[in-house]
Amino acid sequence: MTTTMKPEPETATAVPIANSLTAGRLPTPAPWIILGTAIAVAASIFGVLALAAGAGYNWGGALVVGALLYIPSIWLFSSLVEGRRRAMDRLVTALVTGAFVLAMIPLISLTITVVTYGLSRFDGEFFTFSMRNITGEGGGIVHAIVGTLLMTGAAALISIPIGLMTSIYLVEYGRGRLAQGITFLVDVMTGIPSIVAGLFAYAVFAIFLGPGVRLGVAGAVALSVLMIPVVVRSSEEMLRLVPNELREAAFALGVPKWLTIVKVVLPTSIAGITTGIMLSIARVIGETAPLLIAAGFTASVNYNLFADRMQSLPVFVYTQYANQGNPPEAYLDRAWAAALTLILIVMALNLIARLVARFFAPKFGR
Fold first, then answer.
1. Which of 128, 196, 227, 364 lies most in the core, judged by the most C-beta atoms within 10 Å?
2. Among 114, 149, 181, which residue terminates a domain?
3. Of all residues in the chain, what percent carry a pLDDT higher than 70?
4. Distance separating alpha carbons of residues 275 and 354, to the nearest angstrom
């Protein structure tokens, strides 16, 4: 008996497609090539216009027009090769990326400008002297730094307890019309102009001390009016993120509600609350209008919040720019250097907020 062996079926081996155009996908560098081509076309157009008009070359306009040409170009090429769905994805990606770049342009330009003009007066004299008896070159901002720190610190002492207690009430106790009314008033206070807060503080102190009064504590009250709604909103959101299971577990053990808030709710949300408080301080530290009305300005160092006028960094920048003397370059240099100092202080506060959020966040792992 003979057995015949069946031939093994031939296995077809898949051949990879080397050309991505035939695979329905644009090559990986295709978007960059299209972008470069669009910018080159726009640059050529602006070059011809510059030669015809005899004017300088507009690099900014060429980049903007090139970006505008890129958006329909990437959609067209993607539609022809990849289909409508992929083309729509690339179109939206181009629009979102363009919006991000457009938003970053003024920020980068502002930073470069302030750093360029502000570094010329970053010296020892600038941070150790005030403007007392200074009419031309020289002088410093020590009086403005002291006033900014004192008024902002006093505003924080006023705002943090009020804002935190209000948020605790809204989350843990508030019910009915009263809580709704408080929430509505907080929303309204969040959007009030800063100059209204300055007028409010000035009016309050003018009732008791007479018209024309300018005090550092009045500036602190004006800043606290702006700071309280920010603290309330940020703290309220952080408290609402605490799981209800943690509260119920504490109640099941017989812990009173106030102790549950102190020992469970606040420690769980302390990182987010601290971050919100630091960001609210960074938001009000650069206000000019309320401090110009309520605290005024001076050329001397004032350590007493309850006596005489008090200078601040934003008001110092405004007065140096608005009231230029001889030589005007000295006043402008001081204004740019003070603006750079204020930016660095705000940056430091934001970094501190991030560090606090990282180190004080609750650890749920074992």
1. 227
2. 114
3. 92
4. 7
What mean pLDDT is predicted for residues 85-100?
A: 91
Give the confidence band of 224 by pLDDT, cuts at 50, 70, 90: very high
Q: Which domain holds residue 294?
A: 127-359
- Write down which residue in 114, 147, 168 finishes a domain: 114
**262 contacts 341 by C-beta, under 8 angstroms:** no
Contact 289, 209 (CB under 8 A): no
Q: Which two tokens stand for residue 234?
A: 């940020």
Range 4-18 average pLDDT: 53
The C-alpha atoms of residue 177 and residue 96 are separated, in whole angstroms, by: 42
In a domain, 121, yes or no: no
Cα 122 to Cα 116: distance, rounded to the nearest angstrom? 11
Task: Say whether 226 sits in a helix, a strand or coil.
Answer: helix
**Do 106 and 133 belong to one domain?**
no
pLDDT in tens, 278-320: 888 988 998 888 999 999 888 889 999 998 899 999 999 999 9
- Token code pair at residue 190: 């969040």
Q: How far is CA 313 from CA 73, 220, 339, 344, in A?
A: 48, 14, 8, 12
**Number of folded domains in the chain?**
2
